[in-house]
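Below is the record:
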Amino acid sequence: PPPPPPPPPPRDSIRRQRQMCIRDRLAIVAAHFFEPHYWSRSAKNFIKTFHAPGFAGVALVFLVVFRRQGIGGRAYLYAGLAAVAAGIVSELAQMGSARSADVGDLLRDVIGICAGLGLAATFDPWMRARRRRGGLTLLLAGTGAALVATSWLTVMSAHALWARSEALPTLATFAHPWERFLYEEAGAPTASRVSPPRGWPVTADDVVLRTESAGRWNTVLHLRPYPDWREYGAFSFVAASADGATHGVNVNIWDIPPPGGRRNSFYHAIEVTPEPQRFTIRFEEIAAASTERPFDFEHVELVILFVRGEDRGALLVDDLRLEP
């Protein structure tokens, strides 16, 4: 027969545990307001990947609190509801702040909560004594897979941030899978990595990015680069038309605006032909175009390429780098 549940704890212990639950919820909500102003978009997106594994941990904390109250299996239900409530409140609280509420974040919270509680149930002696071993094994496999899948995004994002800094002065070559975290998830249209055509000037790798313009602004590339460009003097890349036509392309470079200020948005017009060329933009040109305040080369936010006019276009892009 299954062992009897433990005796309920004293009233003082229950009161302390409830106070700890309230403090945990307030701490979660307060953490959602924390967003350093000069963090790059890649760093902010990396923090967002912690939603699933983070709320798995939150659910486990609530589970420990409720299990100590001697309520048996209901502790899992109460812990899940408390963690979901904390996630909902934290997202709603962001609506009046600099951050924004995101249904996707809440969905990741719920996945992490279910995975964390399911993983805990498979190792809980009280649950193992009341459930069949086969069912617990399936629960372990399912929740473990969900937790690994959600945590994998965190691991890959962390690797992308590290590899991006190690690759300097190269910003992107599109030869490495981790670089997808720097451009495709930033709102760029669907792009593909293809072999370069004959005579391509970059020989360090055998991959170029083929991307077609899409969206309201005919965007062809939306890159989150390494943000600190102060030690360099120019930005360059190789590009060619992929559809045989000549396209007018604008290069748009943003810095991160100061608190309460406006960003600098630098535009540079080029003509991209079927013949591959290396285009170089000197930082003196960027600085001279900034009239309201100096361009902040320490906090570069985005590099955007888009086709001018209403015509669609396809480009081959490669070897975005910083030059001396």
Q: What stands out?
A: The longest helix spans residues 133-166. The two ends are 75 Å apart (CA to CA). The mean pLDDT is 78.
